[in-house]
Amino acid sequence: MALDDDIERILFSEDQISQRVSDLASQITHDFTTNAVSSSPPVFVGVATGAFLFLADLVRKIKLPLNVDFVRAESYGSGTVSNGAPRISFDLKIDIQGKHVILVEDIVDTGNTLSCLIALLKSKGVSSVSVCTLLDKRRKVNFELVGKGKYYYGFECPDYFVVGYGLDFAESYRNLPYVGILKPEMYK
Ligand code: 5GP
Ligand code: MG
Ligand code: MG
């Protein structure tokens, strides 16, 4: 009963992810150093649960003072199709008014989750919202960044249901060190 038995194919290996996370961290470090418009550190807001590993690996490689907080978003329940209306728990500990926020996501599919989260951040008076997602399915992404916010992504993801490196199916597989395609018989 190995964890890997349910995986059809690895899409992004542990090494590929690690390399890409380093690239993103350097890019963000560079951008937030050259655009140091604010005296307060940027706030990295992870979208739980899926972004927990990505956020942990990313912030360790960012060579700047920063803050970390979490919101929670749930769009799939225990299925594999987004229901379009994400359930969001938005209870930040950090006062983000006037701050630069980087929303850290596991994967962007329709962009619905992000546009809801960005609207909530905007209503709190943030200076900017950037987005950093590990994976982007490049479908119909319908969200707008705030201020001078930028969009960062790790990999373009083909349109399969993927798990691992934080991403789940019914709360399992999050601990796989790579991103892989789940065997369709696991959810059909
Ligand atoms: P969106 O709101 O952009 O349609 O969907 C975003 C959320 O749906 C992601 O944060 C993620 O939690 C979930 N999601 C989208 N595609 C996948 C996928 O292929 N695998 C998994 N495990 N979750 C996904
Ligand atoms: Mg997510
Ligand atoms: Mg999920």
From TrEMBL:
<keyword id="KW-0963">Cytoplasm</keyword>
<keyword id="KW-0479">Metal-binding</keyword>
<comment type="pathway">
    <text>Purine metabolism; IMP biosynthesis via salvage pathway; IMP from hypoxanthine: step 1/1.</text>
</comment>
<feature type="domain" description="Phosphoribosyltransferase">
    <location>
        <begin position="16"/>
        <end position="169"/>
    </location>
</feature>
<dbReference type="InterPro" id="IPR005904">
    <property type="entry name" value="Hxn_phspho_trans"/>
</dbReference>
<keyword id="KW-0328">Glycosyltransferase</keyword>
<dbReference type="InterPro" id="IPR000836">
    <property type="entry name" value="PRTase_dom"/>
</dbReference>
<keyword id="KW-0460">Magnesium</keyword>
<dbReference type="GO" id="GO:0032263">
    <property type="term" value="P:GMP salvage"/>
</dbReference>
<dbReference type="GO" id="GO:0046100">
    <property type="term" value="P:hypoxanthine metabolic process"/>
</dbReference>
<dbReference type="GO" id="GO:0000287">
    <property type="term" value="F:magnesium ion binding"/>
</dbReference>
<dbReference type="Pfam" id="PF00156">
    <property type="entry name" value="Pribosyltran"/>
</dbReference>
<dbReference type="InterPro" id="IPR050408">
    <property type="entry name" value="HGPRT"/>
</dbReference>
<dbReference type="GO" id="GO:0004422">
    <property type="term" value="F:hypoxanthine phosphoribosyltransferase activity"/>
</dbReference>
<keyword id="KW-0547">Nucleotide-binding</keyword>
<protein>
    <recommendedName>
        <fullName>Hypoxanthine phosphoribosyltransferase</fullName>
        <ecNumber>2.4.2.8</ecNumber>
    </recommendedName>
</protein>
<dbReference type="GO" id="GO:0005829">
    <property type="term" value="C:cytosol"/>
</dbReference>
<dbReference type="InterPro" id="IPR029057">
    <property type="entry name" value="PRTase-like"/>
</dbReference>
<keyword id="KW-0808">Transferase</keyword>
<keyword id="KW-0660">Purine salvage</keyword>
<dbReference type="GO" id="GO:0006178">
    <property type="term" value="P:guanine salvage"/>
</dbReference>
<comment type="similarity">
    <text>Belongs to the purine/pyrimidine phosphoribosyltransferase family.</text>
</comment>
<dbReference type="GO" id="GO:0032264">
    <property type="term" value="P:IMP salvage"/>
</dbReference>
<dbReference type="GO" id="GO:0000166">
    <property type="term" value="F:nucleotide binding"/>
</dbReference>
<dbReference type="GO" id="GO:0006166">
    <property type="term" value="P:purine ribonucleoside salvage"/>
</dbReference>
